[in-house]
């Protein structure tokens, strides 16, 4: 029972490079989310997808793009990485149609931009 | 501006005693609240929730209290165990929309 799987777990980028963080869930959840965690800032929502085919901006969307590839997969792309994007990124999913059980989070991607 | 605040970055408690973690929020439209627990190198895991129609919810050793007039919620862990040592996040939502998370409180339970 994998839950939410994120790849890669660690990544170092040079300023200006691009990369895509992958996320997949196997719980048949409708909604998926990307958060970043920074010291003293808690978890902040970057983008979310309430259902397949829809995406919306969260609190801190600048510098990111997302793709809801299908019901299972939700990717986060950094087109031109900046040091300010050094953070731990978490993907999460939820299924509010079945009542509220909270989000299921992946184990995170630790990204360093140098 | 931070809509959900956890003003204590860290807390140390002796094993067997009560741990009380606090959370304040500013948005009066928030009507659903969650607590998450996070171990190092893992994602947060759901712990307990409470809706605004209640003022208390219990699940084993964990109890969450909600004081809507004060815009304050707290998580009580009784008795505290060393395995409870983790970072705890509170989160709040209005009408099932996106959740806003606090900055976390690192709990250390001393054996």
Description:
- The complex is a heterodimer of chains A (114) and B (111).
- In chain A, 0% of the residues lie in helices and 51% in strands.
- Chain A has strands at residues 4-7, 10-13, 19-25, 31-38, 42-49, 56-57, 64-68, 74-78, 87-94, 104-105, 109-113.
- In chain A, strand 5 and strand 6 (56-57) form a beta hairpin.
- Chain A is globular, with a radius of gyration of 13 Å.
- With 111 residues, chain B is an all-beta fold.
- Chain B is built from no helices and eleven strands.
- Chain B has strands spanning 4-5, 10-14, 19-25, 32-38, 45-51, 56-59, 62-67, 72-77, 86-93, 100-101, 105-110.
- In chain B, the strands form two sheets. In chain B, strands 2, 4, 5, 9, 10 and 11 form a six-stranded mixed sheet that branches.
- At the A-B interface, strand 5 and strand 10 of A face strand 4, strand 5 and strand 10 of B.
Defining key terms:
heterodimer; A: 114 residues; mainly beta; seven-stranded mixed sheet; four-stranded antiparallel sheet; 51% strand; globular; B: 111 residues; six-stranded mixed sheet; five-stranded antiparallel sheet; 11 strands; 54% strand
Topology:
The complex is a heterodimer of chains A (about 110) and B (about 110).
Chain A lengths: L3 E4 L2 E4 L5 E7 L5 E8 L3 E8 L6 E2 L6 E5 L5 E5 L8 E8 L9 E2 L3 E5 L1
Parallel strand pairs in A: 2-11
Antiparallel strand pairs in A: 1-3, 3-8, 4-5, 4-9, 5-6, 7-8, 9-10, 9-11
Chain B lengths: L3 E2 L4 E5 L4 E7 L6 E7 L6 E7 L4 E4 L2 E6 L4 E6 L8 E8 L6 E2 L3 E6 L1
Parallel strand pairs in B: 2-11
Antiparallel strand pairs in B: 1-3, 3-8, 4-5, 4-9, 6-7, 7-8, 9-10, 9-11
Briefly characterize the structure.
The complex is a heterodimer of chains A (114) and B (111). By secondary structure, chain A is mainly β.
